[in-house]
Amino acid sequence: MKYLILIHSNAHFQQRWEALSEAERENFGRGHFALSDDLAASGELVASEGLADPSLATWVRTRDGQTVSSDGPFVEVKEHLAGFYLVDVDSEKRAVEVAARIPDAVWGLVEVRPVLDMSGWDV
Amino acid sequence: MGRLNQLDGPDELRLRELSARALGILVRRHGGFDSCEDAVQEALVVAARDWPRDGWPANPLGWLITVASRRLVEIWRNEAARRGREERYALTSLGDPAPVPQADDTLTLLTLCCHPALTRPAQVALTLRAVGGLTTAEIARALLIPEATAGQRISRAKARIKAAGARFEEPREDERTERLASVLEVLYLIFNEGSTTSSGPALHRVELCAEAIRLTRQLYASLPHEGEVAGLLALMLLTDARRPARTDAERRLIPLAEQDRSRWNRAAIDEGVALLTPVLATAPPGPFQLQAAISAVHDEAASVAETDWPQILGLYDIHLLLAPGPMVTLNRIVAVAMVHGAEVALAELAEAARAPALDGHYRVHAVRAHLLDQVGDSKRAHEEYLGAARRTKSLPEQRYLQARADAARARSDASSGE
């Protein structure tokens, strides 16, 4: 079963992150590397990436077949995505276990979402 | 590289069957399941590359054993060199592949691949490779995961088996039942994985349903009197028989009640029923036999109305006693509605839905919606269908449930407009 583990952030946590010492930030990074190494070794990792700052985001919309892109959302977003892990695991319990190892989980902004599959109930 | 399907269908299957036999023989001769498996896999890839071009060797199994054995020597030499030790590995009968023992290693191999030290996904991947003879690339495509992930899953599984000290031998009598149950679960999981992914981007995808049936057939050939093995094979055949009618051209799910039964695979149904009939009379009953029996009643009926629902209900009653589970409870309630009416079923559902395992489960909403539709409460049926659509983890089911919700709303609007 695939699960997407989303790491959210917001302005408040951005500030807390920036206020950490360099050693603390490095510890965070090491936690992420260790986790992705373990998931790769166990054959559970599909993909994992950290995302660049939301100020670098481009918002895309199409209108009458034309592409219109702009630098930011029209309304100030309260939360943004900071990174993700896509895992293929045995159970939801295991996905939650993985999520709990994400260093950002101490801030309570890690979300586990099941990925839709193509199964069909035959009744 | 990494694909066996340069060979056409029958040849590919023949090669894969030979690869499992070659592996069994190699492990018997030399021990070391993990290195033997690597060696056979490499021989297999060479065969898939060369045989279509040069033709099949006179003794294909002997060829595979010889090439894999040579590869095995190289693997061991490399390992020995890496460890810096001067170990001597005695390999017997290298250039002499002729005498091939007739031992049936299918069960032994399956039992090893489904070793309890492994997680389910690891058991599935290793079974597909060591017993199914699929390459890592094929397994990755079939399971919709990256090749590196599949490769890692397999090598980790083999390392675990080695660390657990598991040997290539038939399970001891006291653990036999448990180990066999685990093998059957893994085979059923592979079968279901096939129906889970079969509507995805299926080009060149190895057909997991067919693979699960093929492996279960092999197991049945070595254990023909084991009721649950026959039951599982029958269940797979009876379920797979309905596949041609299960989705429409747009890949939309068609419920059993609306399927075009002339499109069901009669040969598969006949085979499933023929497998099941003798074991139901002789073997101790088990969940796979019961589910197969229920499937057989559906498959033999000309329509929903002509289905023997009292028999289905009776089978679910036994299933619930023998091996209770939330999905058995729910499916039984659908049968209750057909025998005793939707009102009775709704009352039973209200009771059953209190169980923690069913709390908030989308199928509770789906069944309730179906029953409310039957009693003519389209308004609540609409809400329940929507609730189910939001909660399912399956894309085709979501589409189906949303369409049902639309239809219920249309009926509700029509009746309130009168």
UniProtKB/TrEMBL annotation, chain A:
InterPro entries from the UniProt entry: Dimeric_a/b-barrel, YCII
Superkingdom of this protein's organism: Bacteria
Pfam families in the cross-refs: YCII (PF03795)
Gene3D superfamilies listed in its UniProt record: Dimeric alpha+beta barrel
Residue span, YCII-related domain: 1-118
UniProt family annotation: Belongs to the YciI family.
Listed name of the protein: YciI family protein
Organism per entry: Leekyejoonella antrihumi
